[in-house]
């Protein structure tokens, strides 16, 4: 019985020693893993520091530990309470070699080269797009130019049609006299505006060049405006020089029909306007520099000088 008791005691002691040894091995394995992680971090820090010193950069500053790090470390410490912590031995930490620094730099350069390649691809795509837009813009400009030329040609054709229509209307509705046709327009306009309207219809303001044209135009205006006396613009002016009367085509006027005040006799003497009737207006022209355009009276065909901005009827002439 004593031998049995001694054998059981030895077996129990062996089992206790084995469990204790297994627990110690587990602690050593955990400590070894922590030592390896710490050694890897120290190795990376040393390599970055050496690389920054080689590139003349400021010392590397690692990221700040988050606020919850101490609590996590405290919790881990509570779990590993009672387990001995083994600090890494500096002598066993592998230091970064020049090959490691070169590999790191080459890796960074490779990344930069890849980024530059992507940038070049995008720039090429952008250049192609800009070239396409430029070609489209040139086509639009060409189409706009062609459209503008077509519109100008259409406007010119419309103006030419209006001039042809005006000349035809002037000879059909107005007075045919020699190689000219005269047409009265009952529209109050200044002398310059009347000249423009006649030109748009393919003619010009009336320019009677001789006595026959003057008498024919007088009969036409008197019949059209009787029994009233209206001044009607002619194409005659002295805007270039006082007293130098020119037609609208810049030819000098050689025939005149200025108004002259009739002589008034004594009491009971007959006058053109009846006994004792005063003379109608002074001799013309009398406006000097203030009156540079000529209008014809519709009742007797006499010429009067007026301010060119006054608004009168006007008569146009058209070639047959």
Unreliable residue stretches? 1-7, 57-82, 266-279
The CATH homologous superfamily of the domain at 174-261 and 281-319 is called: Mannose-Binding Protein A, subunit A
For the record, what CATH class of the domain at 174-261 and 281-319 applies?
Alpha Beta
What string, H for helix and E for strand, traces the elements in order?
A: HHHEEHEHEEEEE
Major pleated sheet: 8 strands, mixed
Query: What structural class do helix, strand and pairing data support?
Result: alpha+beta
**CATH fold label of the domain at 174-261 and 281-319:** Mannose-Binding Protein A, Chain A
How does this model look, in words?
This protein has 320 residues and is an alpha+beta fold. It has a domain of 127 residues: Mannose-Binding Protein A, Chain A. Helices cover 52% and strands 13% of the residues. It contains 5 helices and 8 strands. Strands 1, 2, 3, 4, 5, 6, 7 and 8 form an 8-stranded mixed sheet that branches. Strand 6 and strand 7 form a beta hairpin. The chain is rod-shaped, with a radius of gyration of 58 Å. The N terminus is likely disordered. Its main location: cytoplasm. It is found in: Cytoplasm; Secreted.
In short:
The chain is an alpha+beta fold and 320 residues long.
Pick out its properties:
growth factor; growth factor activity; single chain; eight-stranded mixed beta sheet; Mannose-Binding Protein A, Chain A; lectin; alpha+beta; 320 residues; C-type lectin domain family 11 member A; 8 strands
How are the elements arranged and paired?
Layout: H1 2-54, H2 69-79, H3 98-173, E1 175-177, E2 180-189, H4 191-200, E3 204-205, H5 211-225, E4 231-237, E5 246-247, E6 293-297, E7 303-306, E8 312-319
Parallel strand pairs: 4-8
Antiparallel strand pairs: 1-2, 2-8, 3-8, 4-5, 4-6, 6-7
């Amino acid at each position: 019985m004593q031998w049995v008791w001694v054998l059981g005691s030895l077996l129990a002691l062996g089992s206790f020693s084995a469990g204790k040894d297994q627990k110690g091995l587990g602690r050593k394995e955990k400590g070894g893993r922590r030592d390896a992680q710490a050694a890897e971090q120290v190795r990376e820090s040393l390599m970055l520091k050496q690389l920054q010193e080689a590139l003349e950069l400021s010392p590397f500053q690692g990221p700040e530990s988050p606020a919850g790090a101490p609590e996590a470390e405290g919790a881990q410490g509570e779990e590993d309470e009672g387990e001995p912590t083994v600090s890494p031995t500096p002598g066993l930490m592998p230091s970064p070699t020049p090959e490691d620094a070169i590999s790191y730099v080459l890796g960074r350069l490779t990344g930069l080269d890849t980024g530059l390649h992507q940038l070049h691809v995008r720039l090429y795509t952008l250049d192609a797009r800009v070239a396409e837009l430029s070609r489209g813009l040139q086509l639009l400009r060409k189409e706009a130019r062609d459209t503008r030329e077509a519109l100008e040609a259409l406007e010119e054709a419309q103006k030419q049609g209006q001039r042809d229509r005006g000349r035809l209307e002037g000879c059909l509705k107005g007075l045919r006299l020699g190689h000219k046709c005269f047409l009265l327009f009952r529209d109050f306009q200044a002398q310059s505006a009347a000249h423009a309207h006649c030109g748009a219809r393919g003619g010009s303001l009336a320019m009677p060049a001789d006595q026959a044209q003057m008498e024919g135009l007088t009969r036409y205006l008197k019949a059209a405006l009787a029994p009233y006396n209206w001044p009607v613009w002619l194409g005659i002016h002295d805007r270039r020089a006082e007293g130098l009367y020119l037609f609208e085509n810049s030819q000098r006027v050689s025939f005149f029909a200025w108004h002259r005040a009739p002589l008034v006799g004594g009491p009971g003497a007959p006058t053109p306007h009846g006994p004792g009737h005063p003379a109608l207006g002074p001799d013309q022209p009398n406006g000097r520099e203030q009156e540079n355009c000529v209008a014809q009276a519709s009742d007797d065909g006499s010429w009067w000088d007026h301010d060119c901005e006054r608004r009168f009827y006007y008569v146009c002439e058209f070639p047959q």
